[in-house]
Amino acid sequence: MNTALWIVQILLGAMMMLLGLMKTFLPVERLNKFSWTTHSSEIFIRFVGISEVLIGLGLTLPQLTGIAPALTSWAAISLCVVMAFAIVEHIRYRETNDLWKNVLISVLGLFVAVGRFVPLH
To answer: How far is it, in rounded angstroms, from Cα 30 to Cα 23?
Structure first.
């Protein structure tokens, strides 16, 4: 189980870091392959990018370093929240072809959140 959690954490973390860095640093004009960016302000796009970078770091670093490992579960829950908002936006703009990606990422995030849950005593 631990190995499966690490594989999913690393894959999700790397994906979120890559997507977050792109949304944080690339010019907005180059982000037009993300359809929602054409409907959003630059400030919101940068906010989402920074949030995704933080989620990516949170999925791996706390568990890897042993410092506040409960943050890994919170990062995974945050990932699920971001994906829920993404699903709403896709539905809002009638872009239902890619919903399965958001659902899959949410399920994997939920797997990490539950698998790494550390009760606070």
So the answer is: 9
pTM of whole model > 0.85? yes
Could you tell me the sign of the dihedral formed by the alpha carbons of 56, 52, 54, 120, in that order?
A: negative
Q: How far apart are CA 66 and CA 69, in angstroms?
A: 6
For 18-36, b/e burial (b = at least 16 CB within 10 A) is ebbebbbeeeeeebeeeeb
pLDDT tens figures, 62-120: 999 999 999 999 999 999 999 999 999 889 988 888 899 999 999 999 999 999 996 54
**Backbone φ and ψ of 101, nearest 5°:** -65, -45
Alpha-carbon distance of 83 to 91, in angstroms, equals 12
